[in-house]
Write a structure and sequence with these properties.
The protein contains 27 helices and 31 strands. With 844 residues, the chain is an alpha+beta fold. It has an 8-stranded mixed sheet, with no helix packed on it. A 5-stranded mixed sheet has the order 17-18-19-21-20, with helices on one face. Helix 1 links the parallel strand 18 and strand 19. Helix 3 crosses helix 5, helix 5 packs across helix 6 and helix 9 packs parallel to helix 11. The site of zinc ion has 4 residues, from helix 3. This is Aminopeptidase N. It is an enzyme of class 3 (hydrolase).
Length: 844
Amino acid sequence: PQTIYLKDYAPFGFDVREVNLIFDLAPNATRVTSRIRFAAKPDAEHPDFFLHGEQLKLIRAAIDGQEITPTLTETGLTCDVPDGAFTFEAEVEIDPANNTALEGLYMSNGMYCTQCEAEGFRKITYYPDRPDVMSTFTVRVNGDLPVLLSNGNPTDSGEGFAEWHDPWPKPAYLFALVAGDLVAHSDHFTTVSGREVDLNLYVRPGDEGKCAFGMDALKRSMKWDEDVYGREYDLDVFNIVAVDDFNMGAMENKGLNVFNSSAVLASPETATDANFERIEAIIAHEYFHNWTGNRITCRDWFQLCLKEGLTVFRDAQFTSDVRSAPVKRIGDVIDLRARQFPEDNGPLAHPVRPESFQEINNFYTATVYEKGAEVIGMLKRLVGDQAYAEALDLYFARHDGQACTIEDWLKVFEDVTGRELSQFKLWYSQAGTPRVKVEEDWGDGTYSLTLSQSLPDSPGQVDKQPMHIPVAVGLLGPDGDEVRETQTLELTEARQTFRFDGLAAKPTASILREFSAPVILEHGVSRDAQAFLLAHDTDPFNRWSAARVLATETLIGMITDGKTPGGDYLDGVLSVLRNDDLDPAYRALMAGLPTQSELAGVLADRGLIPDPMAIWRASETLKQAMAQHAQDLLPRLHSQMRVDASYRPDAEQSGKRSLGSVVLSMTTRLDGGELAASEYAKSDNMTLQLSSLGALLRAGKGQEELAAFYDQWQADRLVIDKWFGLQVSLAEPDQTCAVAQKLTGHPDFHWKTPNRFRSVLGPLAMNHAGFHHGDGTSYALLADWLIRLDPVNPQTTARMCSAFQTWKRYDADRQALIRAQLERIAATPELSRDTTEMVSRILD
Ligand code: HT7
Ligand code: ZN
């Protein structure tokens, strides 16, 4: 496959002035008629005219009304064109009913739907399918279906047709069309300047009862973007459609967002608190793209983080504002360490702005999204809130309607602050997670902190330069009082010393507060100091972090030296659990352990070979010890966390349920499932139903409840996804593969639907001890299914290959078993470009 390089970027030689499309919908033979007004760019001399196009049947093509016979290749079309402006017309036929890859125009449960990001529009018609080509679109949809939608504003409709016009120039990846037998949940929003916007959430009949929360989240997002970023919506309608077959979470098409059903549909009976929070965040994310992504888009796909990093950062700000900021931050860091750190420290490592790719779909990664958002957070911290706000205002004013680069983005910050950001820019080009080593010194009232940074080699990158790292630090006195407020140290050299004078006693440093940079802190702090921070740190993030470090060290001691769980950790967590002044959601997080996969990473980092079974046993033992330690507290906490009011998925209630669920898990370890069974019997919301069922299964009970759950929810595909997933994620290590295998034979295992495929194979890869069970059967099962899915849906297959990315951490036997599966996948005839690229990078 061909490799595309950032350095080879060249602009398209033509402007596109106007696009007119007519769709005559038919499942196997949809006709797409296009009329596109092109004009050679004034400065381009006889540029080549190439239009992307894949899997299209060309019926007719014409230029300025004259039929032509263009040259067709596997990837597109070329032809001679006149100088100046001209109209290109084409009529093509496509087959949405057989489009299982879910890119371009496809069908899901009888509904037509598009997904064009990144390069799906070329499967709809011939076009310069690149984000720097922007145009207005006018679309007519002809079809015998009640709902016919496209981007922009509706201009006309009648029996069997609808017309839409999108006045905002956009790249083709933001094009969308939806047609089907759908029902609308409608509302409206009045923007700050008085524009009336019709809001519709279109769903399959039967799902009407799951729309209210998503609609409310949309309205709150619209208001927040006005209040916080001064961004107003710019069309008369905003439509969202829920679709069951979808490769990712959602898509921000202009005025017509398309959502995976799982990312928008929710009711208290069928969705958990975590589902509600995720839905709220994804709705906000897609809506915020209207400005950061749509009005200002990317020049090329290497700049993906320009819209994704910024929009993730914005949606995190929103969630922090409407829920709890520390709880959101801790959750994001847990997620970053679980998904982005392994990527950044393994064979798939790539810069936030990659420099080459074979298949761009493989670069919608945690590095581009989540590390990209961390980079924005660091920038904001370094320049300050006021300058950040001014820089964003300038960005919107200067670049509205443009396709931009990271250079454009950083320039607005340089112009606003007068600061030179070339060292900071290394965050976009150097892959890998920096390590920051901490050394301390104390004497004569002066505390010194020496920070040294290093950045490990990564694929294609060695001998990296020091980064500009903001390290937020506060100092605590011996009684726990804060003797120095949080300040941001700017680490720019390989090694740098920072001094704090005039201190009465040796302080305890709280370093990397709020996780001010995505780095690994190497701080040889004593357990006593960690326990002190756990008890006293005034920064909630670092207080949690101290608990996490203590838990990690406790587990490592158990795994490597057979130690018993330390009382300092157990006492520390217990006093947090007991502290009614603390938010229940925060307390629940404080009681959490690092994941088994994270522990494997820590061991590997220390030069040890992780034994998945030993890690699993230690985690189980520590959970049991924690339950016993908290025994006396559990009944009181259980009753305190009961929610008697009617269900609300807000931070207050969901926090209580989250701590209630921790209490239930602990109690189940002590009472064998008595409380969990009674909670299950009276559960009236999915959060409680699932947590009590999970507790029972973990205790080796709950088979009756599991069967009853299936009977109750058989007709609800989103709940049945949970039913599949729970069984695999909670299976004992030696049962995991068998459970997953059996479920893949279940009549409801509709493997071509990505949500269902992921509901079984995702938890298989995430069940650390089960996936890495020494016999290698789980590796083989996953590989079997990836090989089967690849010809049907390459994008989802390729993403799931990342389950193997950490393979070099493990012992020689496991490595050999994984290598054999990766080589088997690689040797599959006609393997997709997507999967070929992923497997070869992992094997490299
Ligand atoms: N911008 C979107 C990314 C995306 C996508 C979404 C659905 C299916 C396929 C996709 N390929 C790329 C989603 C987002 O980040 O908001
Ligand atoms: Zn996005």
